[in-house]
Amino acid sequence: MTDPMLERWRLVLGEAAQDALGGLTPEAAARDAALDWLYGRDEELSRRDVRRGGSGPSTLTTVDWLDGITRLFPRETVERLERDAVERYEIHDVVTDPQVLARVEPNPALLRAVLRTKHLMDPEVLRLARRLVEAVVRQLMEKMASEVRQSFSGARARRPSRFRQARNFDVRRTIRANLAHWRPDERRLHVRTPHFFSRTRRHLDRWQVILLVDQSGSMVGSVIHAAVTAACLWGLPGVRTHLVAFDTDVVDLTSEVDDPVELLMKVQLGGGTDIARAVTYGAQLVENPRRTIVVLVTDFYEGGSEARLVRAVKQLVEQGSHVLGLAALDEEANPSYDRGTAQRLADVGAAVGAMTPGELAAFVAEHVGR
Question: Which domain of life is it from (predicted)?
């Protein structure tokens, strides 16, 4: 019987390790063929002779490969292999071949690939791809809607209340009001006067949330999550949401915010970047500066005038708007961005960082609920 640990190393190292580590079971040999079909394309590995041989790209079609990995690997591994196929090796027929699209399990990696390649698709393939987009967006919406509800459920007026309910117990105010009754010898605080707060939502002044989203190719994950976030914020009491996509041009997609699938199918990824132009456009949408959150989602690589960008952000901050610069808005929140430009925006008062969609919802809820 083949040692499972040696078999794993054999799968990692490829046929070059056959003599040292021994053969493979039939199932492992099938896994090896599937891995070699994909990773055998890597030019660096070929130069180093780390993996060679196997079935190779020529003996398996994409459909055969997809059927094979679905049968041979757990779901998490399948998603990783599909992501590498479309993002690392640009095997476009994973999302442009109708037979493949009919088999794939929708996941975020394939959604990103569809958005990058939809311009290559004929109408029939685009129809199938749209079903994939709808499925992934629905999954993201369900998760995001839960996070938004949780964030906004806390946006309550914390006024004193005569109604004594345990869930409305105001811990901080109670402690402050009863500090005189602290007994050091007992290490106990005696509460003479408990305090409670109201959980009825107060009247909320109208807030604007203006999402300015960079649609350059590297920001595709943030574009997806911005569309889903905007859809979840849409219609919340006291919040008016805008969504603006930009490269060198600016496109106001606010009218599509309630339909993130349609919105994403209209996004045109790629091109240059004029962040200053987008911020200038966003500034024109502001109605009440002190009730406005401007969220700039970009990698901060400015193709236009950096001085103009800094000036536009500074003006927004000085008039009282909350400016949030996000180098990433996705589940990883692990961006690659121009740190110099980001620092210059931070120097004029913008908050700069990276967030998950849930963290952004909490940020909005915190400000709206004040």
Answer: Bacteria
Gap between the Cα atoms of 210 and 96, Å rounded:
34
- Cα–Cα distance, 313 to 325 (Å, whole number): 10
Q: Let me know the angle formed at the C-alpha of 170 by 169 and 171, rounded to the nearest 5 degrees.
A: 100
Q: Which residues contact 347 (CB under 8 A, 6 or more apart)?
A: none
Average pLDDT over residues 202-207: 59
Distance of CA 328 to the CA centre of its chain: 7
Q: Which domains does the chain have, with CATH numbers?
A: 4-133 (no CATH), 157-200 (no CATH), 207-368 (3.40.50.410)
Structure tokens at 209: 């949330």
In this prediction, residue 3 carries a pLDDT of 67
φ and ψ at 15, to 5 degrees? -65, -25
Residue 180 clears pLDDT 90, i.e. is over it? no
pTM of the model: 0.68
Q: How confident is the model at residue 313 (pLDDT cuts 50, 70, 90)?
A: very high
